[in-house]
Specification:
alpha+beta; GMP Synthetase, Chain A, domain 3; 5-stranded antiparallel beta sheet; 4-stranded mixed beta sheet; 17 helices
Length: 465
């Protein structure tokens, strides 16, 4: 129930035609008069939060929010979005605040913006439009990498691809050292570029200089990989409540693995409990018809994001998780699931991961398989064709996933490591209600609907406790 709601127009039921017909008799004078009524404090739009951990809330964003964040964006990201040839292809859903921000940003920056309805034909669309900066959530960058690896096939081409990927990552890491890449690594990088890297840049349209990633942690491996092949990834952080970005790496101020310093014109602080607070003219004015929830998060001019992180000595922000998602095991160990999920999701077989273990003896995970990547992976490993349901119980597939889990666990302590997984036969999608429009997993819904499968992980814990 939405107080104040008068009418709902549905796009699939000719909503556009209805609006055009109603506007036919509206005069230019009427439009000018209405526009003059709005100022910076006026409500511009209501965007609902994704509802990954609870019920979605209507975030009220003002014209002032959008004006301030886009003007500061042009000032701070001019090298990305305000060159004479800057152009981007928008394939994120317009229900998402990141997409809405980019739409408005392209007005003061002068960048050319194209639209495509979804990411189904993304590689072909990128090749046709040739954007100079690409905006996406981390899952898109993971899929581009995994698809490229799969297309390499097996044998010598696969070994060359993996060697080139390793060179890219090593070269990027060396850029962050005082001495930089040594002559041997530089020569390897030139060769890898001729053999592999330029083809990978071609997959992003061939002209991409920057890739802006947000919505979830990208992971250092992918960040270094893309920078190593010649596409600078500017990872950022923001929320619906901050009109999208509130921290972002800039071309001359980049630290891979962080989400950068505070966005121009904004402030970020982290309290003693690790909670991230944000202030600035981009912060929303309140939740629609929810004054108590608004008062809980807007305190003395600061917005409590609900995320956890840390600031280094240079003011660069690193996200460690969401406070609502922190898992506390039966042994009292606090575990942030994001790091484990991001690392495991990097395997080409894996589509989605939900780490579980709250008040349980150890950490487990629900895993879904990537139906698009499965056929190529099976062929590459000399296995017969099979559907997802069959693959979910196939010994060779499960062994590969176990190895992926072992690599994932290398980043954490034993108490934080994944001990068991359950491979689901159903993927999480926006259509079945388990993903938000920005491809985030609706964790609360997954935990509820797959409670039985989670319980199975802990039925016999003797060898895992």
């Amino acid at each position: 129930f939405l107080p104040g709601l008068i009418e709902v127009l549905v796009l699939d039921e000719d909503a556009i035609g209805t609006l055009v017909a109603r506007g036919a008799e509206v005069t230019d004078e009427q439009i000018a008069a209405r526009s003059a009524l709005a100022d910076g404090a006026s409500l511009a739009t209501i965007i609902y939060t994704s509802g990954t951990t609870g019920r979605p809330k209507g975030v009220e964003l003002t014209h002032g929010n959008f004006v301030s964040i886009t003007r500061e964006g042009v000032a701070g990201l001019g090298e990305v979005c305000a060159k004479p040839y800057s152009r981007t292809l928008l394939f994120l859903p317009l229900a998402h605040v990141f997409a809405r921000f980019i739409e408005v940003l392209c007005v003061p920056s002068g960048a050319v913006m194209g639209h495509t309805p979804n990411a189904r034909n993304l590689i072909a669309d990128l090749a046709a439009f040739q954007p100079t900066f690409v905006l996406a959530v981390p899952r898109v960058f993971e899929k581009v990498y995994n698809s490229a690896e799969q297309k390499a096939g097996d044998g010598l081409p696969l070994r060359i691809f993996r060697w080139a990927a390793k060179v890219a990552i090593t070269y990027s890491r060396a850029l962050d050292t005082p001495s930089g890449p040594n002559p041997v690594l530089t020569a390897q990088h030139r060769l890898a570029d001729r053999l592999v890297h330029r083809k990978l840049r071609g997959a992003l349209g061939g002209r991409a200089e920057f890739a802006v990633s947000g919505g979830a942690p990208l992971g250092e491996r992918l960040g270094h990989f893309y920078r190593g092949i010649g596409v600078r990834v500017l990872e950022g952080y923001g929320l619906t409540e901050t009109t999208a970005p509130t921290a972002v790496n800039r071309p001359g101020l980049t630290k891979v693995g962080t989400v950068g310093p505070a966005f121009p014109g904004t402030s970020v602080r982290v309290d003693d409990d690790g909670a991230i607070w944000v202030a600035g003219p981009h912060v929303f004015r309140g939740y629609r018809h929810l004054p108590e929830q608004t008062a809980e998060v807007l305190v003395d001019g600061w917005f409590k994001t609900g995320d956890l992180g840390s600031l280094d000595d240079d003011g660069y922000l690193r996200i460690t998780g969401r406070s609502k998602e922190i898992i506390v095991t039966a042994g009292g160990k606090n575990v942030a699931p994001a790091l484990l999920e991001d690392r495991l999701r990097g395997h080409p077989l894996v589509s989605q991961v939900v780490v579980v273990g709250d008040q349980r003896p150890f950490i487990g995970a629900l895993v879904t398989l990537d139906a698009e990547m499965l056929p190529g992976w099976l062929a590459m490993h000399g296995l017969p064709s099979m559907d997802v349901a069959t693959a979910a119980t196939n010994p060779a597939v499960l062994e590969a996933l176990d190895r992926a889990v072992a690599r994932t666990n290398e980043a954490v302590s034993r108490a934080e490591s994944i001990r068991k997984i359950h491979v689901l036969t159903t993927d999480f999608t926006e259509a079945n209600g388990y993903l938000t429009p920005s491809l985030k997993v609706k964790r609360a819904q997954v935990l509820k609907d797959f409670a039985a499968q989670i319980d199975e992980l802990y039925e016999d814990t003797r060898q895992h406790s």
